[in-house]
Design goal:
Blueprint (H helix, E strand, L loop, with lengths): L8 H12 L3 H14 L4 E7 L5 E6 L6 H6 L27 H7 L2 E7 L4 E7 L2 E7 L5 E7 L6 H5 L4 H18 L4 E6 L2 E5 L6 H9 L1 H4 L2 E7 L3 E8 L11 E5 L2 E3 L2 H10 L12 E7 L4 E2 L10 E2 L2 H18 L23 H18 L15 E2 L5 E2 L5 E6 L3 E6 L2 E6 H17 L6 E11 L2 H8 L2 H7 L2 E4 L4 E8 L7 H14 L5 H16 L9 H12 L14 E5 H7 L6
Parallel strand pairs: 1-7, 11-13
Antiparallel strand pairs: 1-2, 2-6, 3-4, 3-6, 4-5, 7-8, 9-10, 10-13, 11-12, 14-15, 16-17, 18-19, 19-20, 20-24, 21-23, 22-23
Helix pairs in contact: 1-4, 2-6, 6-7, 9-10, 12-16, 12-17, 15-16
Amino acid sequence: MAKIKIMSDGLANKIAAGEVVEKTMNVVKELVENSIDASSSRIEIELIDAGVKEIKVRDDGKGMGREDATLAFSRHATSKLIDIEDLFNIESLGFRGEALPSIAAVSKIELITSNEKEGTKIHINGGEILDISSSDLGKGTSIIVKDLFYNTPVRLKYLKNLYIELAAITEYINKMALAYPAIQFSLTNNGKNILKTTGDRDLLKVIYHIYGVETAKKMIEICGENDDYYISGYISYPEVARSNRNAITTLVNGRVIKNNRLNKVITDAYHTYIPKEKYPIIILNIDVDPILVDINIHPTKMDIKFSKFDELEKLLTTEIVEKLEKLLLIPNVSVRDSKTVEEVNINAQLSDIETELENSQVEKKADTTYEEMILDFEVQENTKDEGDLPVRIKKMTPKGIVYSTYIIAENEDGMYIIDQHAAAERINYEKVLKEITKENPIILDLLVPVKIELPSNEYLILKQKFEVLTRLGFAIEEFGFNTILIRSHPNWIKEGYEEEDIKRVIDIMICNEKFNLDKFVWRISATQACRMSIKANDYINYEDQVYLLDSLRECENPFTCPHGRPTIITYTKYDLEKLFKRTMD
């Protein structure tokens, strides 16, 4: 007897569910994507116990006739692909025909749908259709998923706690609301509102509703295009950077994706503007011919492959960097009467979380009325000094130093606090960077050559980069087995530390497995700048303070040190008067 047998549809669907449905968020994702594909203008998501007990998704989309509604729960049944060519020109969010049968295989489902010609109601338990009947003719679809994983108890056991499940769903719906500002989204859990958008196409309003008014004020609109890509959306000021990548929302043709390579391009564009391990808030729409991307590389359809990625990288980097270079990026230490709840403790109980979320909505309402708010924030860009020279900070007059580290200064706009080490680092970084990137650097001969011996593996890595060292101004020659001599060096090597600095350059070159010249130059420049700069607690007199502040104003980016820490913060005159109750509002 043959050992190989064809699996039953029920078994195949349960296996497919293992890939498609891992948590409650996966169910919500698949159902919401179906609603979007149905051209809905309103989508309501109602959860009971973070979706573990019940998930209800209701929309006002096209709806289905009875035959389509029944076929929708058959494996690989889809209205979005007809032949193999369609696979390379996918414009819908769903297309495989695996989601509904996979969800149905591990839950109890009630579907009510109507295309205004025919209304259908279907009950399904564990993938088996129990009954089909007529329903009302209200256009749209309502689908209720109950008791997820009731027939696969092992899978149910490994669901995360209710807060983590709810947090994942909320994050996903937030991203979909950002992706589709023309759709009105509503998300509730146990009858309590978590998110509600207006669907009026105003993306900045959605940003406000998710992140709060203070963050919305610190968002900058971007757009740009080349022959292959069109990008649009909002990027944040560096000062509102987060400690994780969750606030980076990237969309390709309306599909929310997670692509590490794309995220890296975005964060690299903020290079020296934000500290390492900090990430900006980004809402980025990428429109591209579907033939240039492949979304069929992961069961969740969250990852994507790009053709001509280099062209996208150039476009993104140029647009983000140009925007940041135009902004006045001095963090304002504003005075606020209340705070909105943005994050809650991940170990809190679900009831506490819902109370926090409810309080967050109340505080936002107290701060400003959502419907009446005009989200048209003015972006403060570079001013121009006499002679049409670009100036990013008005001239400041130093008034003293506190803790032997922070210079206090003023101008007509307010009071400034400057970190003397961070400011000096930025000034020296730009000086060193300019010297390193010169085509004909100034070369200094060493009285005694620096001799460096290396292990065989490191020597082989370095040998491939001799040309880079020569271009930077090092005179290098091989000297016996796995040994080199450095006879001269560029003038940005610190006097008295020649051997130490040269060895550091060599170490950085060897340690970077995937060598990138731009990053190498940045790291060397940042390292040298740090060594050259005054430190905290170093005494500087009044003339030195004036020189430091004037030099900082002349920098291309005077707002952060090379490592992304702020060099300067400000209290506006209004903030000071509010602190001392000289003004009341």
